[in-house]
Amino acid sequence: MSDQAHISNTGWNRRDFLGGAALLALAIGIPIAGVSLSTLDADDAPSARQVMLMSEVAQLVIPATATKGAGDVGVGAFVLLAMAHGLENARAPLAKDAPAGLQSFARRDGSLDYAAWLEAELNRRTGSDFLNAAPDKRRAVLSALDAEAFAESQNANPWRTIKALILLGYYTSEEGGSRELAYEHIPGKWVPDMPVEPDTRSYSSDWTGVEFG
Amino acid sequence: MAETYEFDAIVVGSGITGGYAAKELTEAGLKVLMIERGRDIKHGGDYATEMKTPWEMPFRGSGDRAKYAEEFPVQMLNRHFNEFTAGHFVNDAENPYTTPEDRAFNWFRSYQLGGRSLTWGRQCYRWSDYDFGANKRDGVGNDWPIRYADVAPYYDKVEAFIGVAGQKEGLAQLPDGPFLPPFELNAVEQSLRAKIGAKWPDRVVTPGRVANLTQSKDDEGRGQCQSRAICARGCSYGAYFSTQSSTLPAAMKTGRLTVITDKVVEKLDYDPATKRITGVRFIDRLTGERGRATSRIVFLNAGAFNSVHILLNSADDTNPNGLANSSGVLGTHIMDHASTLSAIAIMPGFEDRTSFGNRPSGAIIPRFRNLDTMDGVGHTRGYSYQGGALQSGWSRGKREAGIGEDYKNALQKPGPWRAVFVAFAECMPRVTNRLTLDKAKKDAQGLPALNIDMAFGKEEHAALADAKAEAEAMLTHAGGKVIMGFDKPGAPGSAIHEMGGARMGFYPKDSVLNQWSQAHDAPNLFVTDGAQMASSACQNPSLTYMALTVRACEAAVRMMKAGEI
Which of B47, B49, B52, B59 to mutate to test the interface with A (most CBs of A within 10 A)? Predict the structure, then answer.
């Protein structure tokens, strides 16, 4: 059986589609219990607590401004799905010399369970349950983790992967991609040089700028 | 029961050269059968993802990477492979090939009507006599039996038909053609052109020459490029050259083309008495049924390595080492450009400039080494750069610290400009780089799988070391801050310019094809895809494959009319 036969009409196969359906259901706010994450191994399915946590964290990274924030548009659920399916290399095996603090969060396939790691890491830094902390405290805790993760010596910090997926989820959503940024599916022309104006926004449909930028 | 046909010509493959052969042969009055191994793809109607936005896709355009790692481990390395385009690439797991354990080869494939013409990079460059004369000049490989003057009229013809946007520069090493207006350089590239050209007059930053229409070709029903740069999804405007947009409609218009899909050619029958190909045998990939078709001449256009694979699989008592292989060189001297990211630099000073639209191309710097002066150290051929300048998008945020409103607002603006130079170094033709049948491994049709054994040598490494140093020097001189660069090539195959294996040459004793892309051993057999190449040059080869195909078709028709074949 060739893959091409069942790709031909839709561009993706049944397994993808089920994953996508779950994602879309999550994004529009159906409770996690109402969604069958049928494409995922049992140990990949996040807890309800982790779904809430990831949504909150996404919103802290990209808050609501004139446009909605990342948590508002379901990016937390996308991040969990994306991690399970290896986007941003999230299913790559942990390095053999990874710290014990990470090894204890390894999945069966040797990759890191990012959601479990993040939950524990934020709770540890908060000194109590991160989700129950005051908003300012949550922001400060995440900000400190972010600053450490992007320090020169920290290029393998798991937070970088989670943050990358939050950005991916947000700027490829309709809100992030076409309202916060500009999106032009059919530009119709190439204008090689023009001035940046005060209201110039970055194009999420500038595929080259996104890929190599 | 499988169908059989009687035709003037059979064309095996429907990609860039197969489509072109079908067009030329039908337009010359021949009744042609085109055999494609993959599924049918209709122009426009079957480009299922063309108009999709990321938020309409299950994985937002990135796709299910875990699934891809299992099913598309090689194809997923292709820049053009993503969730929108995955249906235009082959499933690696279902279509195995083998390599020596320590020598990976990235074989990028598209088994479908149109082949890789749907997914190609569309860069179109003429070769010059520096290229056709390269083997003779340094004595590596066999001399080409043709020179630029032999091919130039066919370059003219092909460029006029397919439509190539580009800028004339008057360079001997990269001859001009009848170009459509170029996709112009952006502000940073214009500055690079001026500053690099002032210090190194022999180095020219020029717009990439690309088979995307900057003006519509109404006679062919092809619209102008919409500057989307999502070509590999398929383009219903017909704005880039593909079999579907260009050669297939032309061939169909003659009423003399028959196309069959889902038929994998297994072997060619050969009659030792007449030294002719007498039939083409194929297997239906869906039902396993076998069929056979006959024709007066056969054009192999299955893609360089698959054309060789068919010839190797066509071994019989008369030709125990493969068809058209009395020389013993069939499968040898395969090549691919050694390529790497030579330099990437931040380009300050252009924060107030931007662009609009997505250019389906970039900027290039043609070869400047080993032209009239042999100035290469450790290498005798050339390299060229492709790349250009781009403005960072939201993805830069992945590398930056910050959370919250200020961070979000900063990412709303266009980011810093970067210049990227990717080098393509000419690959020496070596007898040790070769294709063979792997009798221990079966392919999807149960035939012996292809084994690809290829490694780059010290010449390619020397060229890429030079390319890295020169890229850094040029970008630094132009005001850039180089942040990264490499001098080691990606695995062979990564440039997607795999070629050779049935090389052209003067003599039957050391080549497979003569100057007309015609088999020395079987005069009614022509191989006009990348397999025919005797050297690799350092620029993209597809335009040359097309020109040589047109030339071979003209010769074949002439020989048929003269009763020679």
Answer: B59
